[in-house]
Amino acid sequence: MKDAKSNHKISSADSTGSTKAKYRIRYERDLCIGVAACVMSSPKYWEMDGEGKAILKQGREVSPGIFEIEISEEDYEESFGAAKECPVNCIHIINLETGEEII
Length: 103
Ligand code: SF4
Fold this sequence. Notes:
This protein is α+β, with helices and mostly antiparallel strands. The protein has one domain (19-95): Alpha-Beta Plaits (2-Layer Sandwich), CATH 3.30.70. It contains 3 helices and 6 strands. It has helices at residues 8-11, 37-41, 76-85; strands at 21-28, 46-48, 54-56, 60-63, 66-72, 91-95. Strands 4-5-1-6 form a 4-stranded antiparallel beta sheet, covered by helices on one side. A hairpin with a 5-residue loop joins strand 2 and strand 3 (54-56). The relative contact order is 0.25. The site of iron/sulfur cluster (SF4) has 14 residues, from helix 2.
């Protein structure tokens, strides 16, 4: 069996480090009003549930109603678009290097 290094596409970041986690999406579910703008902007990370609220796909609940996931540089633009389109500003993007809340 080949070792993990042989899977170059997944294990090896390029010179920009684009495969590394650079940002965190933070979602405040209680504030969501179910407009689904996030799903339209970023279906990779967002879907609607049966209660008319958004789900941050694979997000972990870090405290009640707060979900987070780390993303790489390549997913930043799409994720920023979802956050920007949210009418109640319940999606935030945090720069993991600086700690800055970008939105
Ligand atoms: S855009 Fe905001 S309010 Fe609308 S479903 Fe997504 S998280 Fe909820």
